[in-house]
TrEMBL record:
EC numbers, comma separated: 3.5.1.28
The protein's name in its UniProt record: N-acetylmuramoyl-L-alanine amidase
UniProt xrefs under InterPro entries: Amidase/PGRP_sf (IPR036505), Amidase_domain (IPR002502), NAGPA (IPR018711), NAMLAA_amidase_2 (IPR051206)
EC class of the enzyme, as a word: hydrolase
GO BP: cell wall organization; establishment of competence for transformation; peptidoglycan catabolic process; peptidoglycan turnover; sporulation resulting in formation of a cellular spore
Family: Belongs to the N-acetylmuramoyl-L-alanine amidase 2 family.
Domain of life where this protein originates: Bacteria
Native source species: Desulfuribacillus stibiiarsenatis
Amino acid sequence: MLTYKHKSATVFEFNPDANESQIVHAKNGRIPMHQFNHNWFTSRGQRVACKINAGFFNTSDLKNTHIGLVCTDGGFEEGWPTSAYECWLDKSNIMHVENIRDHPDNRGSIRGRFKWAITLGYSLVLNGKKDIRGQTGFPTGKTWRTLWGQKADKTIVLVIADNIDANESADLMLELGCVRAISADGGGSSQMEIDGQVIRETTRPLGTMLLVFAKPGEKVAKVQKKSSNEIVKDFIPVGRKNRPGLAMTPRFITIHDTGNTGTGADAKAHATYLNHPNTGVSWHYTTDSNQIIQHLPTNENGWHAGDGYSGTGNRQSIGIEKCINRDGDFNATVQITQWLVANLMKEHNIPIENVVQHNRWSGKNCPQTLRSQQNGWTNFIKGVIEKYNELFSTSKPDLYRVRVAGKQIGAYREQQSIVNEVIKALNSNEKLIEIEKV
């Protein structure tokens, strides 16, 4: 199981062969998101890893009349008796998306074959292609959307995203690798919780939710997708004392910690701090476990290094502050920062030896988190180099031809493959072994 940000979306992925999921239906009227649970799973030590709203219901009252059908635990729960299923998970953990127009009555054909099912989800992706259809057409306009999909490897993808329409919803699910997907709901009903953290909750109570369960001791991995490393520009206003506007050609990249472990002390919070008219310090970027915010152009200096008005740190280096808020994921923040540093090195032709700690300029114990870890700074720099090579290196390892007794066995770039062939030849008592660079 993993979760990450992608554009305006929060994404949760899980393997249905490894993690159980079930639709839970509120029995006596709609209820708030936090009240949804499934006693059978939780009594066996499986906690709820993700909650996301499921299907449509009558919002004119609180009786929770479901529009279409909802089926849980393999059985019919509630709904219009003539409706067909549009999204259902079979017992082999394949998530089916079937359009009502193509399958006017599939209730009998799938009876006994499903784990859960809902209707009135608008199709977005079918057979790996955009296919936007529904019984009454996709709701128009941009709003919050609840999106469900499945990849070819059976990974189920659950998403809530803000301010997107039908086409953008389909494009998003295709970007995330889905071969079939639906819009399960939207607007004020789009609500989600991951590993106890509320992603979005509104005042609207819900009738049904899809719950995903973690095995005892299992954690939800928080990762950063490369495609979501978008840099948000939130520049300090021109003329403020912390935006001096002095021209700069950057020769260094300086890494800091924010020093703020408080809940909510993320990149956005620090952008708000820098934009206050009384703030005197400034730097170029803040990174957290979900985003990068840029505060200054890289051709202007900032006051971040503590080495004075004319100091090299202040006047010739790009300042990056890493967030260390307790509700963030520090490892994800490090990975995002390494990605940013690699890109800045490329853009400004800055060598790796000029990626430095704040400590270099002022002697301050910063970045404290990396400095306090065994090999923390060394591992950070190693990660920057690996990311740089991943993004920008076009060279390939040398190719070597291996001959045994005059006969070519193969040509390899990997050292271990060459070693394996040599060992194999020696074990066969071959005396003539040749290795030639191609």
